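Notes from hallway chat w/ T.B., transcribed later so I don't forget. T.B. wanted the structure written out for a chain they're using in a teaching module, and asked if we could keep both sequence and structure tokens in one place. Agreed to drop them here.
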Amino acid sequence: LTFKIAAAPLNMWAPDVYEGAPVPVTAFLSVVSKTAGFVILLRVIIICFIAAPGIDKEPILLQVQPYVMVLAAATMIIGNV
């Protein structure tokens, strides 16, 4: 899933693809691919944190926030190095 949204640690492919592809293909990849990746990631998060038996039903944002923060920080740090 992090490959589709170009998040760390699988974000090294995006600059090469965006540089070498024609403008319409780059636009398609940057919008449709990321949207599909985020939708799939959201579905996995909902299944893991809401539909899983035996967990309390606190808001999903509070449960997922640490994982999303680590993924976002790693993507920003690795992407800028």
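Follow-up for T.B.: The first helix runs from residue 13 to 20. Might be a good example for the class.
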